[in-house]
Amino acid sequence: MWVRSELKERAKWVLKQCYWKAVLVSLILAVITGNVSGSSGGNYRQGQKFKNEIIENGGAEYLILFLTTIAVFILAAAIIGIVVGVFIFNPLEVSIRRFFVISRVQPAELNELGFCFKNSYMNIVKVQFLRSLFNFLWYLLLIVPGIIKCYEYRMIPYILAENPEMDSSEVFRLSKDMMYGEKWNAFVLDLSFLGWNILSLFTCGILSIFYVNPYQNLTNVELYDVLKNKLFSSANEQNAR
């Protein structure tokens, strides 16, 4: 049985060894996973003003053209976003997880961020796409099953980081086995960072960038290592019988 405080203590120690690299890589991860947001209020007000001017000038047909253009632009942006997410961001997440996996045992170099693009790239793309797709479909069904499945698939990027060529069915099976009986514990581990995240709000996210995100990412790697060793130890014991 693993203990949260022990995972966090090990994560803090690793963070001291690779602080600035961990900060940079965590910032990249936050960007590609959508944890960094900005205000769009100014753009909305400008668009509303522009629309009002069109209406006041009696150009209803121009308003329709304007709205159609915006709809096409949003659709195109969504398609581009999906493509970029599938072929760049999702594989890049695996490389980032690999950086943290290596960092817990030895200094990792930033060139690890290119790992996924040079090692079984299309397999990583496929598995990560399936993970995103299944998560999306489960969330469409119901929120709670979606959350449960999200935790069940949690270890997939870490497994790919060490085994980029592994078949998708095997990756999903391993992640499921590793998280069996551990979903609630992992959820509580995430909750243990809630205070830090709230405190970060008062620093406009600066605390997250320079401490909370790398600290949490390294803690998650410690969790992966514990669950991996637990799974394979159990498998070895069964084989020995």
Global structural class: mainly alpha
What Rg is obtained from the alpha carbons, in whole angstroms?
Answer: 22 Å
Mean pLDDT: 89
Largest sheet: none
- How far is the first residue's CA from the last residue's CA? 22 Å
Shape: globular
Number of strands: 0
Strand content: under 5%
Count of runs of 4 or more consecutive helical residues: 11
The helix fraction, in percent, is: over 70%
Low-pLDDT windows of residues: 37-42
The ordered string of helix (H) and strand (E) elements is HHHHHHHHHHH
Number of domains: 1
Description of the molecule:
This protein has 241 residues and is mostly helical. The protein has one domain (4-36, 71-240). It is built from eleven helices and no strands. The chain has helices spanning 4-17, 19-32, 41-56, 60-103, 121-141, 143-152, 156-162, 168-179, 183-191, 194-201, 206-240. Helix 1 crosses helix 11 (206-240), helix 2 packs across helix 11 (206-240) and helix 10 runs antiparallel to helix 11 (206-240). The longest helix has 44 residues, at 60-103. The two termini are 22 Å apart.
List keywords for this structure.
241 residues; mainly alpha
Topology:
Blueprint: H1 4-17, H2 19-32, H3 41-56, H4 60-103, H5 121-141, H6 143-152, H7 156-162, H8 168-179, H9 183-191, H10 194-201, H11 206-240
Précis, in short:
This protein has one domain.
